[in-house]
Predict the 3D structure of the following.
Amino acid sequence: MGVKSIDRLAKEKQLSTKGIDLVKYAAAILVICFHCESVFQDPAIGHLFKNVLCRVAVPYFLISTSYFVKRGQNQSSDYIKQYIKSLAKSYLFWSLIYLPVGFTWIQQNYSLSPMLYPVALVAGLFYTGTYYHLWYIPAAIFGIICVQWLLKKTGYVVLFSLALLMYAFGSLETYYAYIGNEQLKVFFDQYMGVFVTTRNGLFFALIFVVIGFFLWDYHEKIVNYQRYLGGLLVLMGIFLVGEGIIVYSNVGIDKNFMWMLVPFTGCLFSWSLFVKVEKKINVKRLRELGKYYFFVHPLCILWAANLVHSYEFFANSWLQLIVTLLATHLLSSLIITVTEQLPCYYFDLQLMLKVNSRYIQNLI
């Protein structure tokens, strides 16, 4: 083995996935906090918590997912195809789980004709998700496929430029109040009238997937900058909070996009590659829990909301959050236990299709 090979292996040993799993678990909790009622009475503090800190979670997930997808692709040319197939299977299962809840929400918030339910179903599956949190998966799949294809055609300079351009357009929903060009504003209004949001695979996910791919391709060089990552992360965090204050002073249509999320989450992921985690911490368990936290937490939020209607005691927002977190953890733990014992029943898509087809027929 040559000197360069030994040096490369030594650098790779400094990298660890345990820190990533730990941060992803914390990010899963932040996603739950974001979707719960605000727990801070002060609007400014509540904004910084939900729309700055909690919004770090999804970009971090996107970078992490694409980083490991790119690593897998280097080990097997068929990896991305198999990964997307597995992810799509999981997504379809959970989409069917949430389909009744999603249609109930549509009935409560929109006067949609039953004839348009198939259109809503297609839009939900391929764009918005059948419930509010599931948009992430079609966005991630689109981003991965798009970046993989573009990398065959061009390099990272062009790819980053394109992704940042897409992100710039997407960020108009956050900075809508600052749009000075009337023609641009009219065009953006027309876009929103059709597509509702820019939080999708093209405008939002693309840049973070590019970062994940890039960080894997250059992971050996990251080690050389390890000592700078902590300070850089703090600096980017300060800028992110500053941007959060700017957004708070003039709120746009939504607050999904913030420019400093791009460098901050890139630094956060790079920093987490070197986090030392004690052996007694079962990161594999945390990884599984975090995955199911994402999928099941809206059900627990709905259950906690029903408790408020039944028991006035649960009206406290902090108590609702605690109850939601505990319920999410217990339900996730139960699912992990069941799937470990009966893995063949977990993805019974045929059964879920039958159940939900009957539900939709009843609605119509």
Summary: The CA atoms of residues 143 and 149 lie 10 Å apart. Confidence is low (pLDDT under 50) at residues 1-7. Residues 79-109 form the longest helix (31 residues).
